[in-house]
Write a structure and sequence with these properties.
Chloramphenicol Acetyltransferase; alpha+beta; seven-stranded mixed beta sheet; single chain; globular; 15 strands; 499 residues
Length: 499
């Protein structure tokens, strides 16, 4: 039945074409069929993606030879040939995510790029079909081992879908058919949402850049393989799959995990994982100049504002407020791993002592340099490894409650909120010309009311606040603080999601 449907679609596609073109299409799809060894429904789905591609290009006035070149079956490699997929042990950061998540849910994050033109769904789907083979550890599902969870490679077709739901909605893992990431589009926006067990922001950004690069190639643009855009037909490098945590050096000190419980921003928690997303768009140079005027980095300056806003939005006048700041460890050793390779520290301040902005920026800048140093981060990685090793032979069903106890430092109760700065996102000039802005969304975990992120591209910095509370005071205070320093802020917010 599926084969008959495919034949009908092909016959319709070839209708009205010259004999030479019809023959060329037959040869193309015969070769395509020979490169797909999947269950019949999946094979039919992937074949339909190529039929849709031919229809799109024919309507655009492309010749059949041009289309065959653009959609060259060789771009699929052997990914859909039915060969056995590789399994992957979890990296040391990923291990904690399935242990701590609620049944049927998973912590997610989103990376988005807004293009200058409307997204063509047919081409985005084909770009995904071609790109996924370059990221084999992403084509996997989480499985329960006897001692640890692990990633099991799967033979499947991933779909680029129109966005219709709340951002970063957790994916059910009850069924084997779930995916560990999703690709979404909405108007001019392309987003990828990842289960954090697969990768961190840096690895995810490499995937998004490479996906967009392939999408733009299908649009007829020439995008060079540089600035984090990978060659989709290049062999996967083992360095991209390595668990860098095992290469950490230094002393394991349990004291690096000890921290006091943090105060939380006021506001009733919503039932959904996100209540609202707010983007504060600013000129990156202007923001950086303001930060320098306070003798701090952009991260230190924004962190200071988060502390100042927290003081106005927390009723309690005594206690510690902690802001968790991730550190991309790749900056210390140039690693190209696409898996998790970030550690974290808390910038901390007694709420009653949050006063002078200039002194606060100076203090936060010093905390970032000390706590986020290579030495301190390596100590944390070594301690993480030691704790994991001590539980290596504990069965998984016993490990879950033990790990949740031992890894108390990961509990959201010691975090007031998070600030994750992706920094300046470098793009090939040819790709940068097609992109308006990029940003990062990471939902807060309970009992946190908010998280925040920074991403800079094409001279535009997008500071994003993600809250899980109906109380909008925090976002309003942040806007006032930014404008008080003379920054021109374009504010854009989502709807209030159902809570």
């Amino acid at each position: 039945m599926q084969g008959n449907k495919k034949d009908l679609h092909l016959e319709k596609l070839k209708g009205g074409l010259k004999d030479d073109d019809r023959e060329m299409i037959d040869v193309f799809f015969t070769r395509l069929s020979e490169n797909i060894d999947l269950p019949i429904l999946s094979k039919g789905l992937l074949t339909r993606h190529f039929i849709d591609g031919f229809e799109y290009y024919l309507e655009e006035g492309k010749s059949v030879p041009q289309i065959c070149e653009l959609l060259d079956v060789g771009n699929l490699g052997s990914f859909y040939s039915g060969t056995q997929r590789r399994n992957y042990s979890l990296d040391n950061a990923a291990i904690v995510y399935p242990l701590g998540m609620k049944y049927g849910q998973m912590p997610m994050f989103r990376l988005s790029a807004e293009l200058k033109e409307e997204v063509e769904p047919v081409l985005l789907q084909l770009a995904l079909d071609f790109t996924i083979k370059r990221f084999p550890s992403f084509s996997a599902v989480i499985k329960n081992g006897f001692f640890w969870h692990y990633l099991e490679g799967v033979n499947t077709v991933f779909l680029a879908e129109e966005e219709k739901d709340i951002p970063c909605k957790p994916i059910s893992i009850v069924l084997r058919s779930y995916r560990s990431f999703r690709v979404l589009y909405y108007r001019k926006r392309i987003s990828v949402e990842f289960f954090h067990v697969l990768t961190d922001g840096s690895g995810g950004m490499t995937f998004l850049k490479t996906l967009i690069g392939e999408y733009l190639r299908l649009k007829g643009k020439k995008i060079p393989v540089s600035q984090g855009v990978l060659d989709i037909n290049e062999e996967v490098k083992e360095d991209e799959l390595v668990n860098e945590f095992k290469n950490a050096k230094g002393d394991a000190l349990l004291s690096t995990f000890v921290d006091k419980r943090s105060l939380q921003i006021d506001g009733k928690l919503g039932r959904a994982h996100i209540s609202r997303i707010v983007h504060y768009e600013m000129d990156a140079k202007a923001l950086n100049d303001i930060a320098r005027s306070y003798n701090g980095t952009m991260t230190a300056y924004i962190t200071a504002l988060l502390f100042l806003a927290a003081k106005e939005c927390i009723k309690k006048k005594e206690g510690i407020f902690n802001i968790q700041i991730p550190v991309n460890m790749r900056k210390f050793n140039g690693s190209v791993t696409l898996r998790n390779y970030s550690m974290y520290f808390n910038a901390s301040k007694e709420i009653s002592q949050i006063t002078d902005k200039r002194e606060l920026v100076k203090e936060i800048d010093a905390q970032i340099k000390e706590k986020g140093s290579e030495k301190m981060m390596n100590q944390m990685m070594m301690t993480t490894g030691k704790l994991i090793n001590s539980l290596s032979f504990v069965p998984l069903f016993l490990k879950v409650p033990v790990m949740q106890s031992v890894y108390g430092y990961l509990g959201n109760s010691i975090i007031g909120m998070t600030l994750s700065n992706l920094g300046k996102i470098d793009l090939p000039e040819e790709m940068a010309e097609e992109i308006e802005r990029m940003y990062f969304v990471m939902p807060p975990g309970r009992p946190n009311r908010a998280t925040s992120t920074l991403a800079t591209v094409n001279g535009i910095c997008v500071f994003t606040l993600i809250r899980n509370s109906k109380d909008d005071r925090y976002e309003r205070v942040l806007l006032r603080l930014l404008e008080e320093d003379g920054l021109n802020v374009d504010l854009e917010g989502s709807i209030e999601y159902e809570s």
